[in-house]
Amino acid sequence: MFSTQFVLSFSLLLSLPILFFLAPRAIPPRHSSIPISLPDELDDLSLFNRAATKSSSYPNNPSIFTHLSSGKNPKLKIAFLFLTNSDLHFARLWDRFFHGSPTNLYSIYVHADPEVNVTRPTNGVFKGRFIAAKRTYRASPTLISATRRLLATALLDDPANAFFALISQHCIPLHSFGYVYKSLLVSPTFDTTSTESDPDLARLGVRVRYKSFIEILSNASNLWKRYAARGRFAMMPEVTFEQFRVGSQFFTLTRRDALLVIKDRTLWRKYKLPCYREDECYPEEHYFPTLLSMVDPDGCTKYTLTRVNWTGTHNGHPYTYHPPEVTPELIHMLRRSNYSESYLFARKFSPDCLRPLMRMADSVIFRD
Ligand SMILES: *[C@@H]1O[C@H](CO)[C@@H](O)[C@H](O)[C@H]1NC(C)=O
Ligand SMILES: *[C@@H]1O[C@H](CO)[C@@H](O)[C@H](O)[C@H]1NC(C)=O
Ligand SMILES: *[C@@H]1O[C@H](CO)[C@@H](O)[C@H](O)[C@H]1NC(C)=O
Ligand SMILES: *[C@@H]1O[C@H](CO)[C@@H](O)[C@H](O)[C@H]1NC(C)=O
């Protein structure tokens, strides 16, 4: 009995590296099916562990209360996490966004695919803000890893980072920094779906509890195909179909949820598995909404602050705006939200939109 089991597990163990070795030759390699290497995985684990350990030594959901009650009155910051595999097309617009804002109110981190020759700005707010990065592929778990690397780096770097906004090179701001800061950290009315209110605190203009702004949908039409893309039972038992969620890849998390995300090992084991069908494989749109709906459902608003236009989508890409469409009316329309007082960011914009955007930066975009 014992020896049969032993032989069985031994041969299983032996076949794993053989499979690993043969698989890429047997099937033409697809980007989403390139496994994440063990050294990369261990590197990330060590970063996540360090960030989690260090973060547990101070409060993880700093509220206005700790903020007000502490004698030194340290300001809370928003960490802007830029995830890119090309130049930061709108670096000048973001420079203008941050220009003149107190540097103790924000942090910036950039994860740029090291295989791409990304121009590193030699001046402005992005100078020196590039973090240790690894290769990323579209529609693959490498995007989840890159995002967690950004979150962990920002958690480790500064205990004052209270919100973490994920931004791509195709994203633009829809308001001034001051508006974004007030909306996330001060305004008690920004989240119009919130039922949680304490009239006394609201009178004082104090937000009772911070929530993550992440889209979490459970009824999208293609959800079953997305769930089964990794194999019908591949996600079991950790994630049943009833628990599987989808949402926009771009979100703004609280420190508490950022920490939950980098501490996760259970769901990651499933989501890092390669898909067998490329056309329905977008793990980065599922991992974060599924995880947070399981571990902190009440801590999430379930909608995003990053406006995106999915009408006429093709090949998994949302609509991309081009220069002739970039007008003050477009900015005003993109701000309009059914869930909050305004959207704060929008995507996607083609790189040549920089010029028309800069032309109306002060007169429209940063005028609240
Ligand atoms: C990267 O880009 C810079 C500036 O565009 C150029 O000077 C340099 O040769 C490029 N390097 C590679 C490896 O392509
Ligand atoms: C999904 O559910 C939400 C909230 O219950 C609803 O607003 C939305 O219209 C639903 N979407 C679809 C595609 O059924
Ligand atoms: C969304 O994209 C479609 C084209 O697919 C366009 O006609 C429409 O005007 C866009 N909507 C907004 C709100 O920009
Ligand atoms: C807001 O809700 C209305 C009615 O359901 C819908 O037609 C519209 O597209 C929504 N707007 C946004 C920005 O999602």
From TrEMBL:
Keywords associated with the record: Glycoprotein, Glycosyltransferase, Membrane, Signal, Transferase
Transmembrane segments: none
Mode of membrane association: Single-pass type II membrane protein
Name of this chain's protein: Core-2/I-branching beta-1,6-N-acetylglucosaminyltransferase family protein
Annotated signal peptide: 1-26
Subcellular location: Membrane
Pfam families assigned: Branch (PF02485)
Location, primary (coarse class): membrane
GO cellular component: membrane
Keyword Cytoplasm: no
PANTHER family reported in the protein's UniProt record: CORE-2/I-BRANCHING BETA-1,6-N-ACETYLGLUCOSAMINYLTRANSFERASE FAMILY PROTEIN-RELATED, CORE-2_I-BRANCHING BETA-1,6-N-ACETYLGLUCOSAMINYLTRANSFERASE FAMILY PROTEIN
GO molecular function: glycosyltransferase activity
